[in-house]
Amino acid sequence: MVARKPLPSSNGYLLSIKVDDPRLVLTPSRSHYLLNQCPCGFNEYWKPTINKRAQDPQDVLVLFFFHLKFNPRMISTLQPLLPMPLAFAVKSRTERMHRAYRRLFANPESFDPPLDFAWAWSVVNSRCVYVNLRLWGGNNNENIAIIPFFDFFNHSPDVSVGIEVTDGVLKVKTDSSYQIGEQVFINYGKHDNLFLLCEYGFCIPGGKNPCDVIYPTFGNLLSISGSTQKLNLVLSALQLPSIYLTMEGPSYYLILILFTLFTSDETIPPLGVLYSLDEDDRSPSVQHGLRLLLNHLLEETEKALESVTALDYYHAFIGLLSILFLSRRVLLKSTI
């Protein structure tokens, strides 16, 4: 969406929508009502509209099903090439869609939902805007709203927006300024590239996503430590919730793990000693472990990127995976 006049206006809002207008705000109950009012079905009148739907959608779940439908050999080749977090993310989205299908159809004809259902589900899922309409007097079933106008706004992590509902009007507010002809952005939230790919079907390239993050897996940590027993002891003793890497470096809990794994002591240091470490600690044991981990993750990323780009098959999903891996490489190299 491009600004036709300087924004925001004097009231500070990018967009104002009356929530009682079903053309602008679709809640589940309104959608159900409108569908039941339509006697036409998918007849010749609607065919041109249906046939003009995007044939190459970017949503990762739809892409996954398109591959399964038309090229199962390619997807079976692709899956082993994906690092575990990406493979797990795709699997979890698939299971989520299967659950939605089973809730709607008590006795489905087949275990796999039809391709059209997968397409429709992901289109709705990627466009749902969670708005607390209860503040305006709605009920729990109307707490999720689909705002068609939001499809015109692209995401930027550098802008700040807020949504509020007052006096029956939904308003999108921003503290960013736009001149005539400039593209207007909203912020989908503080999301890393993997989340953006799975939920919205795009990645921010070139390491320009300040929210990008890499979560080392148990397998990654095991590869650099070489001791399953010690790693299990460390993880069971610390029970750490947030183990990740950003452009700013490792999380505090990852520092604790690296310190414990690579300290010269055979036993795990007392918890009091561990939690006395500074979050900027770069002692020799932490530095050594971090260097090993970064090199391991970089090697994993380079291997995945090389394998994916070498596939004798082009699809938008392949291009998105390449962007994801290239951004991951930028993040890792900036941390080394």
C-alpha termini separation: 38 Å
Structural class: mainly alpha
Helix residue percentage: 40-55%
Based on CA inertia axes, which overall geometry fits? Answer: globular
Report low-confidence residues grouped into runs of 5 or more.
40-63, 65-70
Chain-averaged pLDDT: 76
- How many strands? 9
Q: Characterize the largest beta sheet: strand count, sense, and whether it forms a barrel.
A: 3 strands, antiparallel
Number of helices: 13
What's the quaternary structure here?
single chain
C-alpha-based Rg, rounded: 24 Å
GO molecular function: protein-lysine N-methyltransferase activity
InterPro entries: SET_dom, SET_dom_sf, SETD3_SETD6_MTase
Organism: Taenia asiatica
Domain SET: 88-189
If you had to describe this structure to a student in words, what would you say it looks like?
It is a single chain. The strands form four sheets. A three-stranded antiparallel sheet has the order 1-6-5, with no helix packed on it. Strands 2-3 form a two-stranded antiparallel ribbon. Strands 4-7 form a two-stranded parallel sheet. Helix 12 packs antiparallel against helix 13. The longest helix is centred in the C-terminal third of the chain and has 26 residues. It is mostly helical and 336 residues long. The protein has a domain of 118 residues.
